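Structure tokens
________________
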Amino acid sequence: MAFDPEAVHSAVTLDPATRQTLRAQWCSLMELAVWGEIKSGQIGLLPKLRKRVLDLGEKLRSYAGDRRWIPHPREQIKNALSGSLQARDALDKVAELVPGVDSGSERDAFRTGWDALRHTLEADIGPREARLVSLLDAQYQEEV
């Protein structure tokens, strides 16, 4: 049995409101990471944090990307799952450094922005991955 094109498209496409929210939250976080008055007692933490927040933005772009250019539905699903795993990994890498931001007049704004972004992504990523895995599992069950 073939994949239902509408079910695949729905599963691999990020809700436009969630996409916009993630984009706005990431932009705000990136601005605070680069231009904000945040400080750390750990030497080298802030440049590493900036690089990881930038990498998170790139992974979010992939997570939210349009997959219609991929011809086969199974490959669209696998690509969406890969983007999801990469976004999770990037999120975890930023999370390792956030506690090191320990002072500065915009420290609280940075942490609040980080918490909001993390919450938005985590609320979307679990259910989305479950839908994608369910579609793949149904396909594999029928092939066996």
User: Anything to note?
Assistant: The chain has a mean pLDDT of 94.
